[in-house]
Amino acid sequence: MSTLTTPIAQPARTAQPAHPARTAPSTPSTPSKPSAPAASRTPASPGADAVIPAPVPARDHRVRDDGWHRLVDAVRESGQYRTRAEAESVTRIVLSALGGHVVGDERVDLARALPEEAARVVASQIPATRRLTAAEFVDSVAPRIEGATPATARWDVSSVLSVLPDLVGDALVTRILAQLPAGYALLFGRAELTTAE
Predict the structure, then answer these.
(1) How far apart are CA 158 and CA 183, in angstroms?
(2) CA neighbor of 95 nearest in space, from 143, 164, 46
(3) What does the alpha-carbon distance between residue 71 and residue 55 come to, in Å, rounded to a whole number?
(4) Are 104 and 127 in contact (CB under 8 A)?
(5) Measured between alpha carbons, how far is 193 from 180 in angstroms, rounded to an integer?
(6) What are the pLDDT digits (tens) for 38-57?
(7) How far apart are CA 77 and CA 87, in angstroms?
(8) Which residues of the chain have pLDDT under 70?
(9) Which among 12, 17, 70, 126 has most CB atoms closer than 10 A?
(10) Quick one: which of 119, 130, 125 has its CA closest to 168?
């Protein structure tokens, strides 16, 4: 029994247009209109009444990245994380959790005060339907951090929130704390003041 080993010939490409989407179908019964020359074929020189748009200034992404990197570096130092990737992951998780619990003008002002990447993380969260106590907040963050326990999650939350006053200012942190239930001040690295009854 013999097998046929002749290679299969590819169809000839000369009959096909180079790019079918760019070629208009020809219909013999319909007269075609002459088409305008494509802009990409012949560079046009601007005439006297041609409007040339002003160049769009390039955004300096280093500024955004530098602010984000400074924030992550501060969290890394505060939490004594071994790697920058670990500090960045914790920063994203904690800021996203916080973003769901800070509302109104404080949320807007927090997003404005943070580096662009951090602001996006905060602002992209849907506001929580129920206010969490500080302990519940920490417990809600724990499952989102790989290998975290309630104790390590508290460390992680504090490592992120305690660097915010230097970044966004004490006045804004005070306003944010006024929105949140008692107990959050400690997470932001502040003493929790209670009134005697």
Answers:
(1) 12
(2) 164
(3) 32
(4) no
(5) 14
(6) 444 444 555 555 555 444 44
(7) 9
(8) 1-65, 193-197
(9) 70
(10) 119
Of 144, 141, 116, nearest in space to 59 by CA: 116
Look at residue 31 and give its three-state secondary structure. coil
Residue whose C-alpha is closest to residue 170's, from 155, 189, 183, 157: 189
CA-based nearest residue to 122, from 100, 139, 144:
100
Query: Tokens 């602001």 appear where?
Result: 119
Q: What's this model's pTM, rounded to 2 decimal places?
A: 0.66
Under 8 Å between Cβ of 110 and 191: no
Phi-psi region of 97 (alpha: psi -120 to 50; beta: other; left: phi over 0): alpha
Other Cβ atoms less than 10 A from the Cβ of 132: the count is 19
Tell me, rounded to whole angstroms, the distance of Cα 98 from its chain centroid.
15
CA distances from 107 to 59, 96, 149 (A): 25, 12, 28
